[in-house]
């Protein structure tokens, strides 16, 4: 066995995927933690005496994030109050199990935990959404709803920052995806280590420069408890392609991950590119680049029995809504093909059958009982 390249005298047990250094366990811990401390201080991620909600899914990234933030906070006296925020998407056999891991982390790290569910926020679980829309495109709902749910949670908890476990691989993948899609507006902001969600609570990514492989190694050698099962629903197909491409390139040269991030950081978007103007959603009040935010459009589609409403371009949304209102006008009364005697709608059209079939109870976002959702 080779000796540790720091010349500490101990035997090396691993080769760092990011740098190629052969290190003993303790020197790896030190190097990995110091890099995150350097990232936090260089980017001035947190101001002292702030409260930070750690977006905790129970997976490796957010578990390592919670562990390291606690460790560095104590070691370098950042003077942060740390707590955990989890979103329960309502995915049986996946999130229910991973939330148990978060509860274990809560005890181990002695942090308070707030769990918000899609069911409470939107009236739908992901299981129900997938039953309505199928396995294609369900990641769009999950991603959009989770993003907003985390913002709502951060708001509710009155924190100063929301920290997520996005790592270097996630960011390099996103850069690749935005290049492949030609999405220059997103490309210009996807590498930012601090993003403003528009409601004044910045999102920060302390693991931005950490390789996924090293996060797994760190969790393994530190014996951290985390949940490692993939989501039971279909993975985001497009991101999947970018991921495979990145992993193939990483095998040839591990520095591609950092190179892609640095390229993304250095790209200057031409002034002629149309950048979205941020405004507030006229329904829920959250920041949006459209009059009605994506979460509200998706929710509207679900509640109207048009689950594909928010999938794709916004022009499609308009067309589908127009078609839907035309259909509603052409419906005939007192003809419920559902033969449900208790149905009040008793309306049908050729494609939709009785609209009572698509009727769902849901909480409107603008009527959320935010005051009741306290810690
Ligand atoms: N259900 C959730 N509740 C709270 N935070 C979440 C949730 N899902 C994802 N996040 C946050 O978003 C980050 C990126 O999420 P992503 O879905 O890419 O998971 P991941 O890369 O597998 O991360 P992790 O290993 O932490 O699950 C996570 O590290 C976490 O901070």
Automatic annotation (TrEMBL):
According to its UniProt entry, one GO biological process term is: tRNA wobble position uridine thiolation
- Asked if the Swiss-Prot or TrEMBL record annotates the protein with the keyword tRNA-binding, the reply is yes
The residues listed in the UniProt record as binding ATP, with positions renumbered to this chain, are 55-57, 61, 87, 165, 170
Domain tRNA(Ile)-lysidine/2-thiocytidine synthase N-terminal, residue spans: 52-228
Question: Where along the sequence do coiled-coil regions lie?
Answer: none
User: Which SUPFAM superfamilies does the entry mention?
Assistant: Adenine nucleotide alpha hydrolases-like
Q: Which GO terms describe its molecular function?
A: ATP binding; nucleotidyltransferase activity; tRNA binding
| Function of the protein | Plays a central role in 2-thiolation of mcm(5)S(2)U at tRNA wobble positions of tRNA(Lys), tRNA(Glu) and tRNA(Gln). Directly binds tRNAs and probably acts by catalyzing adenylation of tRNAs, an intermediate required for 2-thiolation. It is unclear whether it acts as a sulfurtransferase that transfers sulfur from thiocarboxylated URM1 onto the uridine of tRNAs at wobble position.
Q: Which family does it belong to?
A: Belongs to the TtcA family. CTU1/NCS6/ATPBD3 subfamily.
Q: Which HAMAP family match?
A: CTU1
**Name recorded for this polypeptide:** Cytoplasmic tRNA 2-thiolation protein 1
Organism listed in the record: Phaedon cochleariae
């Amino acid at each position: 066995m080779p000796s540790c390249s720091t010349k500490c005298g101990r035997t090396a047990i691993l080769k760092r995927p990011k740098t190629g250094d052969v290190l003993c366990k303790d020197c790896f811990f030190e190097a990995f933690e110091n890099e995150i401390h350097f990232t936090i201080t260089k980017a001035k991620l947190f101001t002292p005496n702030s409260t930070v909600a750690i977006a905790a899914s129970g997976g490796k990234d957010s578990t390592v994030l919670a562990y390291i933030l606690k460790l560095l906070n104590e070691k370098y006296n950042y003077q942060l109050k740390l707590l955990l925020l989890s979103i329960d998407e309502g995915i049986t056999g996946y999130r229910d199990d991973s939330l148990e891991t978060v509860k274990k982390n809560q005890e181990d790290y002695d942090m308070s935990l707030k769990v918000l569910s899609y069911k409470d926020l939107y009236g739908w679980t992901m299981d129900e959404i997938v039953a309505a829309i199928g396995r294609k495109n369900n990641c769009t709902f999950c991603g959009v709803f989770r993003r907003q749910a985390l913002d709502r949670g951060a708001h509710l908890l009155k924190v100063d920052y929301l920290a997520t476990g996005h790592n270097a691989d996630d960011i390099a993948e996103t850069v690749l995806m935005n290049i492949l899609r030609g999405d220059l507006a997103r490309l210009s902001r996807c590498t930012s280590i601090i993003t403003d969600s528009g409601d004044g609570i910045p999102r920060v990514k302390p693991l931005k420069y950490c390789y996924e492989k090293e996060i797994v190694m760190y969790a393994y050698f530190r014996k951290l408890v985390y949940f490692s099962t993939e989501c039971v629903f279909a993975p985001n197909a497009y991101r999947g392609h970018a991921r495979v491409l990145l992993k193939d390139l990483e095998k040839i040269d591990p520095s591609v991950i950092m190179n892609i991030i640095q390229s993304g950081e250095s790209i200057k978007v031409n002034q002629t590119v149309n950048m979205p103007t941020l405004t507030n959603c006229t329904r829920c009040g959250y920041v949006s680049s459209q009059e009605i935010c994506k979460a509200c459009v998706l929710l509207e589609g679900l509640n109207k029995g048009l689950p594909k409403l928010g999938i794709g371009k916004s022009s499609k949304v308009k067309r589908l809504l127009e078609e839907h209102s035309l259909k509603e006008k052409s419906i005939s009364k007192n003809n419920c093909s559902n033969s449900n005697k208790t149905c009040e709608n008793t309306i049908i059209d050729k494609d939709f059958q009785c609209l009572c079939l698509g009727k769902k109870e849901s909480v409107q976002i603008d009527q959320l009982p935010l005051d009741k959702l306290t810690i």
